[in-house]
Specification:
about 90 residues, Ubiquitin-like (UB roll), 5-stranded mixed sheet, disordered N terminus, two-stranded antiparallel sheet, globular, alpha+beta, 2 helices
């Protein structure tokens, strides 16, 4: 049986990482981020005529840099402290 201290410790065990999105520090608790989560964290306006390109660097291991495509691969990217994301919006014409 857990005591109150163990319960509190379990509730506060969320790991947090500071990443950079478009030059701004963002604290996240997720171990992995999806395309949609990175777009949401960027704070950029969204809409039916806006598409995004996401590039990242300073990631994990062999996938230390790359890009994320909407509904594409990689579906999720492992988060690492100091990882840098660039989210660029494009208006469809």
């Amino acid at each position: 049986m857990r005591n109150a201290h163990q319960e509190e410790k379990a509730d506060n065990s969320g790991h947090q990482n500071t990443i950079i999105i478009n030059g701004r520090s963002v604290v996240v608790s997720q171990k992995e981020l999806t395309f949609d989560e990175v777009v949401a964290l960027s704070g950029l306006a969204t809409g039916p005529d806006i598409t995004f390109t996401i590039t990242f660097r300073r990631g994990h291991g062999e996938k230390a840099e790359g890009s994320m495509v909407e509904n594409g691969d990689p579906i999720k990217v492992k988060v690492k402290v100091g990882m840098i994301f660039n989210v660029d919006p494009t208006t469809r014409s």
